[in-house]
Design a protein that fits this description.
The protein contains 14 helices and eight strands. The protein has about 325 residues and is an alpha/beta fold. Helix 1 packs parallel to helix 2 and helix 1 packs across helix 14.
Length: about 325
Amino acid sequence: MMKYHFIFILASVIRTFARPAQDVLAISKPRPLVIWHGLGDQYDAPGILKFQSHIEEMYPGIFIHSVYIDPDSKADQRATVFGNVNKQVEMVAQQLKDLSQLSQGFDGIGFSQGGLFLRAYVERHNDPPIRNLITFGSPHMGISDITCKPHDVFCELGRNAARAGMYTEWAQENLVQAQYYRDTERFVQYLESNHFLGSINNEVPTLHNATYAARLSQLENLVLVHFTEDRTVVPKESAWFGSYAIPDDEEECEGAEEDSKTIVPMREQPLYTEDWIGLRTLDESGRIVFQSCESEHMHILPECLKPLLKQYVGAPL
């Protein structure tokens, strides 16, 4: 999620695209691409720009737009930490609608939380429509903890303080990560306090929105990339719509070790079995792709990146 992760993206891109000129894919007018960066990054960061330039080499003539919350780089970076995600999604929806190059549809790539936000765009707007959506290490079922290195007392103190304040009104309106913090040990509090993740996952029974499923199921493909060594998104299975199980007794589960908690995979989640957001429809028609990268969060290896870019980006309009 942090800005330095794009160093690894940049390195992988250079290795991925260092190939003979005959490998450039000849498409007269490729489908446009929209990128939404992750936490701590900015829309015009060197890694993002280099990533764009290599895709342009791969697909000559492709139009690429990097989503921004603010055209000022530093303000855009700050908006990955502080801001109201619901308002940011609305802002980006208008930003994309104003781009005539996207009117016939586009593919989307979301890095970390950017992939979650692009899914929110699909469910709430999708006009113009995303065709293929690729999300890298995105917390689709939220994050359930903040990670610390072993025996880091100060980090643990900060972690406990942060967890205690995640569901305050201020945090839910102003801290981006709090708006997708899904603590299964305080699940009732999450449902009552959260206004973003609980909404786009249709988890609040009284607020179900059927149009979310209708729009998401219009995707040609939903590509979910999971990092096997991820220590940033907790649990890492969130990238594949997995989550910790909701305990029968919240008090009994407090303080349990993360490794000992049960993971509920996507196909056992109520939002899948009852098709709250269209996942089951996509899956049963073969349009969900599960991809693993054998690396840490946002360390995108060439063998993971290259096939995805060739198959799900740059199709002819």
